[in-house]
């Protein structure tokens, strides 16, 4: 068994909305370069495999046939504006080869999930994936095909009966929640900036799952300005107890790193260190609860040089069972590449010097504190549906 199946080929850089768009594929290129120079991708047990694009039959397990036709038409004619299907907008402009590039991302995530489910690999990672906003019949939020939903559907079709999805992107994982809102086999947990201040405007604690699947959707809506200590307090107060109660067979996680304090599109204030800590804990939970079966993707992240490559290299290192000391220097070759290509000063170390200390929920909460109000709202909404006491 491989330690980790990494879905990667340079063709994944082709998911590119064009100059000036925030979702610049250079972020995944720099991630892979950094991970390779740090020796992670060449380590024993790490299989790097070029994905095949998802075929139409697979894409139709989540997306409508009419939407696939619309994406193909827009892919052939990038001047298309199809608002019914969310194509040709500022967020999701059309580009030549859009269908093929999007299908390749989806194929990579599904391949990683299948490797984990079959036992070929303990873990699976696609840093180019995590396109969690795409809806069954429309593009949304920089996302054309919803690769996490497609991979989870593939796991269910392969025989999984309990899949947990944890989304730590700063934006609500609305597309994945929508696909499985009425499916009691899938638990979706999203920690995100409150929808009162950030796209997509969903992800309130009251969204708990449809009829027959009550408690299958969990949303932690965090106040702007939440940093490492507050975020980790919320994470520990919600995620481990729910996963332990739910007992998933597979853990699927989306790791948008746009919760970072330097991200230009949102308002949380985590450091690389806080983000790395969440990856570490999720990895531990996969081993505790799922015999190690863990599938992870990238997601959002718009500090293209300063944050994304370091965050997702930590993710790859943890998935490879070779976690990096946060104080590790970034390799000189990688720094030289960044300086030459972008005329920017690259990060010197794999840390921001942040602390991962936090106050546990069991120590008591302050009902006047906005963060504690958010945590309390989520626990009150969903814990009783899982037989858990929302208070200690």
From TrEMBL:
One of its GO terms (biological process) is epigenetic regulation of gene expression. GO terms for molecular function: histone deacetylase activity. Residues 21-317 form the Histone deacetylase domain. Belongs to the histone deacetylase family. InterPro entries: AcuC, HDACs, His_deacetylse_dom, His_deacetylse_dom_sf, Ureohydrolase_dom_sf. Keywords: Acetoin catabolism. This is Acetoin utilization protein AcuC. Gene3D superfamilies: Histone deacetylase domain. PANTHER family: HISTONE DEACETYLASE HDAC1, HISTONE DEACETYLASE HDAC1-RELATED. Transmembrane segments: none annotated. Pathway: Ketone degradation; acetoin degradation.
């Amino acid at each position: 068994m491989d330690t980790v199946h990494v879905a990667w080929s340079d063709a994944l850089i082709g998911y590119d909305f064009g100059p000036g768009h925030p979702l610049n594929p250079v972020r995944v290129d720099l991630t892979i370069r950094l991970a390779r120079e740090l020796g992670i991708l060449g380590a024993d047990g790490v299989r790097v495999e070029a994905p095949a694009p998802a075929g139409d039959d697979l894409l139709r397990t989540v997306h409508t046939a009419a939407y696939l036709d619309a994406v193909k038409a827009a892919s052939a004619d990038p001047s298309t504006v199809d608002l019914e299907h969310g194509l040709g907008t500022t967020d999701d402009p059309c580009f030549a080869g859009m269908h093929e590039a999007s299908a390749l991302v989806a194929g990579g995530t599904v391949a990683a999930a299948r490797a984990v489910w079959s036992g070929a690999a303990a873990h699976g990672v696609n840093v180019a994936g995590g396109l969690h906003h795409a809806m069954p019949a429309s593009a949304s939020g920089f996302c054309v095909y919803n690769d996490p939903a497609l991979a989870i559907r593939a796991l269910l079709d392969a025989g999984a009966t309990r899949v947990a999805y944890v989304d730590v992107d700063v934006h609500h994982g609305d597309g994945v929640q929508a696909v499985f809102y009425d499916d009691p086999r899938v638990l979706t947990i999203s920690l995100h900036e409150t929808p009162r201040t950030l796209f997509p405007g969903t992800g309130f604690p009251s969204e708990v799952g449809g009829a027959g699947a009550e408690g299958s959707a969990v949303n932690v809506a965090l106040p702007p300005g939440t940093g490492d200590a507050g975020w980790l307090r919320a994470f520990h107060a919600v995620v481990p107890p729910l996963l332990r109660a739910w007992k998933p067979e597979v853990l699927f996680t989306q790791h948008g790193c746009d919760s970072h304090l330097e991200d230009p599109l949102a308002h949380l204030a985590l450091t690389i260190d806080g983000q790395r800590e969440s990856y570490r804990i999720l990895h531990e939970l996969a081993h505790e609860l799922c015999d190690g079966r863990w599938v992870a993707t990238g997601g959002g992240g718009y500090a293209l040089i300063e944050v994304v490559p370091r965050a997702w290299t930590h993710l790859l290192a943890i998935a490879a069972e070779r976690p990096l000391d946060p104080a590790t220097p970034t390799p000189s070759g990688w720094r030289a590449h960044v300086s030459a290509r972008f005329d920017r000063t690259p990060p010197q170390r794999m840390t921001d010097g942040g602390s991962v200390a936090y106050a546990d929920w069991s120590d008591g909460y302050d009902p006047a504190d906005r963060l504690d109000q958010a945590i309390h709202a989520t626990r009150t909404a969903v814990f009783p549906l899982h037989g858990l006491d929302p208070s200690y």
